[in-house]
Automatic annotation (TrEMBL), chain A:
SUPFAM superfamilies: Winged helix' DNA-binding domain. This is GntR family transcriptional regulator. CDD domains: WHTH_GntR (cd07377). GO terms for molecular function: DNA binding; DNA-binding transcription factor activity. Residues 9-77 form the HTH gntR-type domain. PANTHER family: GNTR-FAMILY TRANSCRIPTIONAL REGULATOR (PTHR38445:SF6), HTH-TYPE TRANSCRIPTIONAL REPRESSOR YTRA (PTHR38445). It comes from the Bacteria. InterPro entries: Tscrpt_reg_HTH_GntR, WH-like_DNA-bd_sf, WH_DNA-bd_sf. Keywords: DNA-binding, Transcription, Transcription regulation. Pfam families: GntR.
Automatic annotation (TrEMBL), chain B:
This is ABC transporter ATP-binding protein. SUPFAM superfamilies: P-loop containing nucleoside triphosphate hydrolases. One of its GO terms (molecular function) is ATP hydrolysis activity. InterPro entries: AAA+_ATPase, ABC_transporter-like_ATP-bd, ABC_Transporter_VariousFunc, P-loop_NTPase. It comes from Oceanobacillus piezotolerans. Residues 2-224 form the ABC transporter domain. The keyword Zinc-finger does not apply.
Automatic annotation (TrEMBL), chain C:
This is Uncharacterized protein. The keyword Transmembrane helix applies. Keywords: Membrane, Transmembrane, Transmembrane helix. The chain crosses the membrane at residues 20-42, 75-97, 118-143, 186-205, 214-234, 249-271. It comes from the Bacteria.
Amino acid sequence: MNVIFNKRDPVYVQVVRHFKEQIATGGFEPGQEIPSRRELASRLKINPNTAQRAYKEMEEEGLIFTEGNNPSKVTRDEQKIQAVRGELISEAIDSFVESIRPIRVPLEEVIGLLKEKYEKER
Amino acid sequence: MIEVKEITKRFGLKKVLKGVSFTANKGEITCLIGINGVGKTTVLNAIMNLTPIQSGEILIDGEKISKNSYEKITFIPDAITMLPQMTIGESMQFMKDFYKSWNQARAKELLDFFKLKEEEKISSLSKGNTAKVNLLLGLALDVDYLLMDEPFSGIDIFSREQIADVFTSHLVEDRGVIITTHEINDIEHLIDKVVLLDEGIVIKEFNAEEVRETEGRSVVDVMREVYKR
Amino acid sequence: MMNYVKLVNFELGRFMKIYLVLIGITVVSQIAGVMVSANSYLNIASEEMNVNSLSMDAFLQMYGVFSMNNVTRTLWFFGPIALCAVTLLIYVLFIWYRDWFGKNTFIYRLLMLPTERINIYLAKATAIFFMVLGLIACQLALIPIEGKVMQWMVPLDLRIDLTTLEVIHSFEYLGIMIPTTFSQFLVHYGIGLMAVLVMFTAVLFERCFRMKGIILGVVYAVISFFAFISPLLINEFVFPMFLYPGELFILECVAGFIVIACAIWTGHYLLNRKIRV
């Protein structure tokens, strides 16, 4: 686990985002155990309170769940996972559109270029 | 909670602290930042009753500092507090002899963590290792509060990383920490609370995550604005 | 209490190397002194008796018999005593200043120990006191050994063997350091202890207030001195010859106790309220 944090967004938001990416791309399997907050803090080199906050946020969003005293696990809810995936895709598209629009490229050209680039980069 | 209330301090005619107030909570890392001046270290010295203050009050969990407080709060200055002719092992023994809160198992763990050896002499240590021994002697006490004066200054990058790792580990967790620094970059992600000191007063006291969340600004952004006045 | 004992032990340990060197110098120098004086005496004796064919009686008439008195007056003997005394006197100051100086500021550690700070003060004073007693004890043990060395070198006809007590009495400086009655011991060492404590508190004044503290320290020491001799002054100038010697002695003791108590109390106050690292 290696995350490069920017300094202007709340660290816990960045941690949550990192988890969403992992969940959406299958980096975390459904039902997989996740590190304790202390472990996470020391792996990501962040404040344990921040790690705690991130977990609380994810728990509230239903991304992770905790049964009794067991370690927290990634959600098994397929719908949820799909929703996260959708959310990430939509966010990425939004920011792409936002940055391409000022250049005023016709959509067809964008799609063509995008296709070419996307397949080459893969 | 450590409460610093309106403390003032003069060195001769020079007013170093002109009514400094802030609080530091248990379980949080509070960072005392000052770009210039000597105020930061003086605040820590004052909390530990290592320098007299002219007015104001300092409370640790609601109580004034006494001899028993030193089992509850410890200070890691930027110079080592042991005699140069002692070995690391002897320094640890000294601490064990005097402090009930000394945790020998934790001390050994720290020794491994920092890759230090008990038989090394204090006087023969590099700057980075001296800082680590200093940290070891403080962290191995089972105290609720830790004060650290410039733990990152003047040491090599690897020692700095190692020391930063301490902050995110169980060695610090759940304790209240106050650190002073003039260089925040390395540790922006590690701290909870920031107290900006300038010209002997607190010019801003804020929570780092909160500023990022509500204002979309980094700690350095805030400092830039505040110190530019 | 345990912390006080540990601190005394620690303070003794810190000075042990230099202390052992001092004892070593004393032993070597004084025994060398016995040998050198005995040797030169014997050389003179053999010259006078063999070359100038003086009779032994005539020689003894002229030069006297050899005893430890011949030794105690040499630099070999009292030199190391003076060295020890001066070193310890300097150490009365240095025992404090060494904690502040250098990159390794041990005073932080001492002041942050979970014990009353006055224990640091008392432990340092006790360490000095023990070191003085230790040196005296060594000196006492050394005198009979030196007597043995003398016996071994100088023939019975030419020497007088003195007891340790006689050696002490023969030399007034030794008499001050090694009192022969208990009350004398109390007086000499009480005054010594008082002087050390006043010195300590004066040093603390300097440590608390730095430049201003030097003046305060000196003023404090002068006041303490006059407070201590005030019964003598009163008896001399205010009510001349008003007191019997016994009464004067008791008043002196009282004055001494007051000065000691003030030194400790002031030290306690300064360490708790005014000290700075």
